[in-house]
Each structure stands twice: as C-alpha cells, then as structure tokens.
Amino acid sequence: MLNHFEFIKNKLLTLGFDTNVLNRYSEHHRFYHTLKHLYQLIDDLNLVNEFNKELFLAVIYHDAVYFPWENNNEEKSADLFKEEAIKSTLTASEIEMVANIIIDTKSHKPSNQLSKKFITADLAIFEKPIHDLITYELEIFKEFQFVDYKIYLNKRIELLKKHNISGKLNEFIAYVENRKPLIAVFCGSFNPFHKGHFNILCKAEKIFEKVIIAFGRNPEKDTRSWQTPLTIKNRQQEEYNGLLTDFISSLEYDVVIVRGLRNSTDFQYEQNQYRYIQELMPQIKIINIFCDKEFEHISSSGIRTLEKFDKHQHYLLA
C-alpha cells in the first residue's frame, strides 16, 4: 500500500498538483470509496507500468468529493479538479478530458475511449469473486447507513440487477436479498446529542453493522431544540412520538435496542424501563453500554444549564 501511496504522491507533484486531495479519501463516512479503491483502479488500469496522466488524474479526482447523501458529487469532483488543475502542467484540452471522464462516472456512459476504459475499471468490482463482492457490499452498506434498510435494500437490488447483464451477479444478488444485517436502535431524547452519547454510539458501532439514532419525545422533558451535529450526519436519524416499542414495530425488521449508561443510577432506571418494554414487546433485545469514565458526568440537562453561561461548547460535537 505504501508503494501505491508514494507513486500517487510523486505523480501528483510531477504534474503540478497538491497532494492534499488524498486526505479526502480518509473522511469518516467513507468505507469503500477510500485510498484502497484508488489503488485498485491504478492496478486495473496498469498505470504503474503504462502511465497515462489523464486516466491517472481521473482516478485521483473522480471521488474526491463524495457525500453519499448528495446527488452532485461527480460535478463537484470535476469542478475541484479543474480548480486545482489551473496551476498544473496540463493543457486546456487535457483538463477538459479528465473532467469529462469524471462526469461520465455519474451515468457510467462513456463519452470517449479513455472514459470507456476508466468506467470499465471503475465497475470491475462486479467481476470479482463472491468473497470480494461480500466485502464490497458491507462497505457500501456502511456508506449508505443514513438510509432506512428497506429503502436501501430495494435500491441496491435495483442497481445490482442493472449491472447483471451476463447473469454473473445472480449469486451475489441472492446474498444481498437474504442477508440480515445486525442493526441497532440507539434511542433517547438527545437534547442535545453530546460527546457522551457519541461515545456510546461508537462502541455500539463496533458491535452492530448499523446503529439508527432515534430521537424520542419525552413528555417529562423539554422539546428538543438543539440541532443534530454534523458528525452524525451519515447515520440514519429518526424521530418518534409515543412508545419506543411502537417505533420499533414500525421499522418492520429486526433490531436491538441500545441504551447508554453513565453510572449505577442510570442502570437502576434502565432496569425498570426494561421491564415495561419487555412486557410490551417480549421478543425485543436490549443491550446496555457504559460510557467511558471521562464522559460519565456529562448530561444533556447539565449542558443546557451551562449554555446559559456560555460554558457548554466543550461537551458538544462539531
């Protein structure tokens, strides 16, 4: 991997580009569209031995802007490339060629021969063995975790069938259709969602493939007035009124409830709540996760009090 990285850095510098673009591929919401994906494209296009600068730059910039919840990533990636190419050694026609290749990845319809070669490499994942496809599916699932599973599954099957021209993906499609991902629901009033909550969320995500953040309306607490932090924007967020068990039933797929604990007082409260939930929904599964010691004193009510004195920012997520 180091050889690939050094190869990319050296080529970018030779062509007059900044290497900061590579930092984008380490963004926290990326699981498939990472540097590993770039390395695979470089290998599939044989760019180490047969270097082509237009294809190389298309590899580096085609996913430079990547937010799965947006629909203009390709356009923004092309714009970023053209902006950074101004100071490079490329001619105007070469810049336009690379930008066109990037735009073509939106529809996967090539506008020229270089673009066709690039798109073939970009879609080469569908030609991989089943174990590689399974890894790919898990990574894509994580990137689109902000989408409800029912919607994700329908759209995913639709896309895979579109690329299943030769029937090679039949086994993989059957796997995706029948897979039962481990999904949890992290519920609370979260007014606001703070660093302690995030600590619990991160721990839960090491256990589950996906954790839905469910903002519940607690009639005994103030109405939620705080904006949700950008840090959790790539997770599925839902709001519900009424009983948690009714919300769980509305999902129509199996989930586990995650509850965060700070101390023994929280545990006693949660134990009592668990008995009610168990009576309403006997089949439900609940796990309790203790936060790390450094967060055990943080509470939403405490933050709301500190906010009155402008001393609350330290406890909030960006």
In a nutshell, what does this entry contain?
This protein is α/β, with parallel strands linked by helices. 47% of the residues lie in helices and 9% in strands.
Task: Describe the protein's architecture and organization.
- With 318 residues, the chain is α/β, with parallel strands linked by helices.
- It has three domains: 2-122; 129-178; 183-315, Rossmann fold (3-Layer(aba) Sandwich), CATH 3.40.50.620.
- Helix content is 47%, strand content 9%.
- It has helices spanning 2-14, 35-44, 53-61, 73-85, 92-104, 113-122, 130-143, 149-162, 170-178, 195-205, 244-251, 264-280, 300-307, and strands spanning 183-188, 210-216, 237-240, 256-261, 285-290.
- A five-stranded parallel beta sheet has the order 3-2-1-4-5, with helices on both faces.
- Helix 10 (195-205) links the parallel strand 1 and strand 2.
- Euclidean distance between termini CA atoms: 32 Å
CATH topology description of the largest domain? Rossmann fold
| Helix vs. strand class | alpha/beta
What does the overall shape look like?
globular
Number of strands: 5
> In terms of quaternary structure, what is this?
single chain
CATH architecture of the largest domain: 3-Layer(aba) Sandwich
The number of distinct structural domains comes to 3
Radius of gyration over alpha carbons?
A: 23 Å
Helix and strand element order: HHHHHHHHHEHEEHEHEH
